[in-house]
Structures are given as C-alpha cells and as structure tokens.
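Dear Dr. V.,

Thank you for agreeing to look over these. As mentioned in my earlier message, I'm a first-year student in the group and I'm still getting used to reading structure tokens, so any feedback on how I've presented them would be very welcome. I ran two proteins. I've put each sequence directly above its structure. The first is here:
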Amino acid sequence: MITYVIPSIPRRADMLGQAVRSVAEQTVGCQMVVELDHLRRGAWHTRNAGIRKALAQSASGDLIGFLDDDDYLLPHHTETLIRVIAEQDAILAYSWFEVEGGTDPFPQHRGRRYDPADPHIFPITYLVRADMLSRAMERCGGFQEDTGYGTWEAQDHPVIDALWYVSGGGRFGCTDEITWVWRHHGSNTSGMPNR
C-alpha cells in the first residue's frame, strides 16, 4: 500500500484539488491522507498529524509519500520512486522537479545523493518505507516547528537525520528524473510559522 500525506490550508482548496487528482492519476494505485490546518499550527504540525493517520493504516512493506497542497505529481512519480527504492536498496527515494512560476533554486543538488557529512536540501516529495518512518518518528518526534522564514529546512532535518540513523546510514535513493511540479506563487507558505 502507498499512502500520500498532504497537509493543506483551507484557502488553497483549488490547488489542493489538483494535488489530489495527481495522486489519483498515478500509474500505480495510491491512497492519501489530506490533513487540514484549520488552527494555523503550521505545515510541520499538520504533516505530523497526517503521518500518524497514515502509519495507523500501514503494514510492513508499505510506503508513505509526501506532497504539499500547492504542488502536484506527474503520473509516473510513484512508479519511478518505487523503482529507485528497489534498484538502490533504499528505504527512501526522491526525484527532482519542474518549477512552475519560477526557477530551480537548487540545481546543484539535482541527482545528488544525500550525505549527512555534507548535507543538502532535497525535496520533501519523497517516498519512504512506513516501518522506517515510524521508527524515525519515535526517535525524533517528527517534523519540527519552523523558526522563521528562511529556515524552513529546520522542520525536515530531524526526520531526515532519524531516518538516516534507523536505516543504518546510506540507504537513501535518488534520481535526477523530473517526476513532479513545484509551484512558485504569491501564496507560498514554506517556512512561515503562522501561514
């Protein structure tokens, strides 16, 4: 079973609709958990709530993916990441993106494998083994609160570090293939604690 966790805010229902459709149109069957942030607690809190729901429904060998409400997947996204996980004996796999409304701010990281000795940002739109995500969440408590605009990567790093640890290190797979679309627009809220 593959489950996507999509945190969302009510004012982005139109973009959420496209995100949901993109999961439904994957070349392999997927389900999703959409978690709405009615109390403006932040993406990190909403994502953690969605993860808890997804983990409660998952079994050994299942995969959990992440998608922000204002982005969308290309139809081959899930199939590509499943292939990367199998070929690279990985617990987690990420791909690259096309930017709609802007330019890629991290072209130097496209296709670059993650190394905690020389860490870099990689997209949250990854697929991860549910059992490993569960262990990582127990270890670190989940995604963390943003400390302010410009430091959005802080919410991701505790989970990434915990996944690296529980997997025994080095079991992150990646590809430079473009499999999803990252929207840049006037309503982006990455890193804004009171979005």
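The second protein is here, in the same arrangement:
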Amino acid sequence: MSSLTSQQINQSYAGLIKLADSTTGVTDNLQTIQDGLGNDLPLKIKNGQIQGQNIFSFGYFIPDYEGIGFTATASQFPANSQNVLIAIPFYNAGLNSYSTINYRVQTATTSSDTAELSFYTAQFVAGYGLQPKDLVLSGISLETGTTGLKATSLPSTLSFSGLGSGIYFAVLKVTNSGVQPTVRFSVDPGVGLPGIWAAQLGYQFDASGAVMLSPSKQTGTGAFRNYMIYSSLSTYKTSFDASDFSGGVLNATYNGFGFTLTVIK
C-alpha cells in the first residue's frame, strides 16, 4: 500500500477518494464516491447509509412510491367523523424523501367537505397503544370535489430520514358544517401490514381474546384498530402528549385512508 508521506497534492490527488460534490461533505442526500480524477465508483454515501451494487441493502433499491397503497374500493366515513382527527399508522424505513402524495377520490363530496392531512411521528401511550406524537409535515390539502386518481404536491419535501425507520401516522381531517362526510377515498389495502406490525410490535389480543396485529386501541379496554378517530381532538398540534388521547376514540367501522408517496430520486 502506497503512502502519502512527503507527497505533494499535485502528485497524489488522483489516488484520493472524494465525493461528487467536493464542497459539502457527507449530507442527508446520496452522493457518488469518486477518485481524485472525478471517476465515479460503484458506491454512494449519505448520513447513516452506504449503497453499492455489491452491498446488500434495501436502500439501494429506490422505489417509485412508498406509503400504504390503496384499493379499488372506498369506505364511507362514519357518522360524527367530520371535524375531528383521524390517524392512520404506516411504516417507513426512513431512507427516502417525497414530493407528492397520491390517492383516489371515488366519491366526490356533496356536502362541501374539505380534507387536510398531516404527518406525525409515533409514541406509545399506556392503555392506548401507538398514537401520534410530533408533527413532521402539515398543510396538505386533499382534493374532494372530483373523482379520480389525484397527485397533490406536498407544501415542502417530506422526509423521515432523520427520524429513522418505524411507525408514523398520517392524520386526516374532513371539515364541513357538521354533517357526516360524503367524500370517499380509496382505502388502505393492508398489503404487507400484518407482517410489519408483527415484526415491529408483536401480537396483541382484542377484548374477545382473538389475536390482533393492529397497534392502537380505541379505549383502554376496547378493540385494537389500524386507525383512530378521535372524538375529542379537532386541532392539529405541534406535539401530542398522552393526556390528549384520554378523551376517547369514536367506536366506528372505517377501512382507512389509502395513499402512496412519490419518491424523490
């Protein structure tokens, strides 16, 4: 192995390893590693991650979309679910950033519904399971007036890379004058979620003794859910604490809000 001892920069730079951008250092964005002459090496690096063709890493395979997906069916919002927060948990590996949220409106509103979405980290609340915690991104206005596949640009880049892999929450709010929402979105298909919940959280039992995988409870003794409709929460907060969830959760059947996120490449 050669040494750089007594070597001048103009004699040794070709054998040095550098980043494609020589001015920023390692950042939260993947950069190609190069030799001193600017030739790309089959290796990329960012904070907390290395990618390469011969390195086994799911992060090397950058998908087009992430999220929980949506089916070709829609679920009616339950009575009394307007003007309150609805939390839908999902898993994210914390590797990518997103520019757009994609969803399907299958029934347009006939009652002037407006829909807003925010993303939160998760926390464990004793007696209630996983619940939203800290705000990640807010101010996402969803379309409700026409049917079809929608692609709504996010107000700023969404990323969980600094937060790590784990469970996050998409928190939805449908607002109107006080009537049951009429807009319908395609639902979460649940593809792959049982395995994720089991791997991340372990199995749970519901009130009847049946094995459940959903991470949240409607009350301290109620059934487990893969969504939560908070009858007492109507305002997005910067951060929720355990006491925010003591006011109860609406006991109603709902199949969840399905979505995907467009990955920035």
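From my reading of the second output: Helices lie at 9-12, 193-201. The chain has two domains: 9-60, 65-263. Does that match how you would interpret it?

Kind regards,
E.
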